[in-house]
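In response to reviewer comment 3 from the previous cycle, which asked for concrete evidence that the modeling workflow produces usable outputs, we include below a single protein chain processed end to end. The sequence was submitted unchanged, and the resulting structure tokens are shown without manual editing.
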Amino acid sequence: MGHDYVVDDLARFVVDARASDLAGRSRALLKRNVLDSIACAVGSLGGELIGTIRAQADQFSAASTATLVGGGKASVDQAAFFNTVLVRYPDLLDTYLTVGGLCHPADNFGAVLAVAEHVGASGADFLLALAVAYEVQCRFSAQVPVMERGLNHALQLAMSVAAGSAKLLGLDAERTANAIAASAADNVSLAAVHAEPVSNWKGISPAITGMRAIYTTMLAGRGITGPKSLFEGPMGLVQLFDQPIEFNTADRTLNSVDETYLKQYCALIHGQAIINALLTIRSDNNLRGEDVARVAVEVFQSAYDLAGGGAFGDKDHPRTKEQADYNLKYLTAVALLDGGVGPEQLENQRVLRGDVQDLLARVEVTPAADLTADYPQRTAIRVHVSTHDGREFSREESDYEGSPTRPMSWERVVDKFDWLAEPFCDAALRADLVSAVQRVDEIPVAELTALLGVVSPVSLRPRSKPRF
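The workflow returned the following structure tokens.
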């Protein structure tokens, strides 16, 4: 009898997962997050980088078996690549926070959807595979401080996409284990993708990981073996992180989605409460950006390190979208100037304008020990705004609408979807997409992807102001 590895146990968890493991509230929240991911994807179609990504997907597609959001088809791996970039592009996707970093479970959506369509899966099978992917990614993230050790969270995404893909492909436990092991071994990427100067690669890296994990999983389906000692063996992840790794597979519940954060603003998760506090001060006191003399922002340590000028580099001179949405100084300044942070606030031309560059130079971000002690249970912040005429305003927030303590409702996500999708979908198509997601476990997944395929790839009308 062969050795039983951690990855074998994880593979059995994947193979044995059943619809009944996805309970009522978690099932409803997962549908909510699916709609949130679609909102992000559709809302990205006008993005400056998207034409380049579409050209790449078109060039390398052979057998076109999966739909591209915005029309056309591509090979399953290229559809996963393109649609994952779309979900990530506006930085509005869901997030799972941990002490040693974070992950974005919605990074699984484009890949799992592509495989589901490729195999002709039901919507119920798609939803179960996505729940499995969320669970694998979040359970690993919860215990292993990936980013703290200098690695990118694409590592656990490789495992989760392989798990979700294997589930849809109907692989047995042996081949599922090989798929997870091989996918993870080749996706130990660096957290340098988040460091200054932040590049386009930050948003593309998860799409590359998902694409490769699908390709690898299909090879495993043909009998190709992977390094089973991925976790506990010599040179494995236990040795790399110097800690035990346990997926607690005896717990069959697929409920990690319950702990995900959703976003209201186009910014990293660490900026959501800050922007919310600043917009409240702005509205309550009839302030405008030009009234502001300086701003002091207090945050938890990982927010400072990642986006406040700490370990990942200084934040004094953002020049691009990717630098702006990972910059608490820029996000503070543009929120006060524009009264919101949507896709328009992350366009390169907006980032470079003199008004926001001037104001961000007068924003100070510092870590606070008491806020750090409460993270990740709370993403608390404090902001202090001083005006040119001598007024002082302060506000502290411990969470925001979208955090697990104040979950964003289905109705609010519908509002978010309408706001993001409005330029690309008329009201009838938006209503059909919302209905399809709500009924996804009752319809073929092809019904959902067909609707995504008739979304306009170019903006047909201007986007209205946020209604949520």
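The chain has a mean pLDDT of 95. We consider this sufficient to address the reviewer's concern, and the full set will be provided in the supplementary archive.
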